[in-house]
Description:
This protein is of the alpha/beta class. It has helices spanning 2-8, 10-38, 42-59, 71-88, 92-113, 125-143, 166-185, 195-210, 217-220, 239-271, 277-293, 303-311, 317-332, 335-338, 343-357, 361-364, 371-386, 389-409, 437-442, 465-480, 492-497; strands at 67-68, 148-151, 159-163, 300-301, 413-418, 424-432, 452-462, 484-488, 505-508. Helix 19 (437-442) links the parallel strand 6 and strand 7. It is a multi-pass membrane protein.
Amino acid sequence: MLFQLVMKHQANAKSDILSGLTVALALVPEAVAFAFIAGVHPLVGLYAAFMVGLITATFGGRPGMISGATGALAVVMVALVAQAERQFGDGAGLQYLLAAVVLMGIIQFSAGALKLGKFIRIVPHPVMLGFVNGLAIVIFLAQLPQLQSFTPEGKWGWAFGDWLTGMSMFWMAGLIALTMVITWGLPKITKAIPSALVAIVVCSLLVIGLDIDTKRVGDLASIAGGLPSFAVPMIDLNLETLMFIAPYSIIFAAIGLIESLLTLTVIDEMTETRGRGNKECMAQGAANIVTGFFGGMGGCAMIGQSMINVNAGGRGRLSGIAAALFLLSFILFASPLIEQIPIAALTGVMFMVVVGTFEWSSLRIMNRIPRHDAFVLVLVSGVTVFTDLAVAVVVGVIVAALVFAWEHAKHIRASTYTDENGWKIYELTGPLFFSAISDFKDLFDPKNDPKDVVIEFKNSRVCDHSALEAIDTIAERYNSAGKTIHLRHLSPECRKLLKRAGTLVEVNVLEDPNYKVAVDELA
Length: 523
């Protein structure tokens, strides 16, 4: 498969491989840190980054997108691990996590097979901007602990303590600044080699050559290990276990799919191409199923690493495959060398990712876009930072939908006139749905209207069951006043569902259109 990809994309093979190497170097501290957050061994995160990255790069719907262990999942996984440890004993946390990851993969694969990936289209642009800005802030905040000292209280031998001071902070800040300058400035001279890779190499040579006392990857944890091996999670296969892991798996699947599909959309815009959402869902699901059986903590698309890859020239599947294979080679063969890379260099690369990810234009347009869109943008960004991505996107979509409904409720109106028969005609304009019902009812005057009244729907549309109920209510009001109401241009479905009006209303059958109404009875 790899050979075929190289032959098919020879022109971009060099860029893909070099960008894959850059991504692999940036993946190491991220995967280790996310494993710590989840409360599992660092190799569990590294194996996840390798397997999820390899499978999604090979079979996914978005070439050039990078997947692996992510912080968005890790902050939820830690709750499962801790609860399993308390409920089932020491050592049970990892096994129940692996089982939950397998179930997560099954849910994701099913979502793709059922073509549910298309629903990412309902995410409004302000929510997209909030997602990108929120993740940029999260990536930035995730780097700040690297500016702190290590203490020995952590589960795996370390934890973050006080802020660095003196020469330690000087070297850390200086190397971060050097990395950012190289990453920013080198593309202005040449794009033959990814600037982030050059920055990492230069800082590493500087630190090793001058024996600078600064934090290195090896200070986080040893990344040395063997090949991941197949093993069925050691849990009791019963209903109790399923009920325990299912809620977590559903949350994992939702977070993974939302982050992956939104990242896919961002990469689509950057590369001016179009990925395949449903195929990506299925690839993410398959990757997590495999990962759960091979000792990995699961994962999804990573916007930070995807940005590094695309900015470094990675466009094809080969870039993601190369990143995964390089990461595996680090684990198997090059751990002593990789552990000498200064944390500052990788932190500087991630800071540049933050600068490139954050939509700075959103700050300039705040006063030019509708206030409700600006509110949704800020809301999604804030919820992403303080809770998690899935909650933020769901909240953003709900708020945007409610605002949309409120704004369109104002569009229902009626022009009135009297025809040659003396009948009063209410000619409606605008959609009739749940939030427009109150204004719709206020349009009519049963007490003062003539004996025959026509409600003309040719410029309106009945959208839901609430609208049908409102029509019934108006019909009953006119009937109580001893008057007849005629409804024109209603679809057959509307007429069928006007139950309570019964014979109280007259419907013009000949001119009525045929369209569906969004109510449960028609599902």
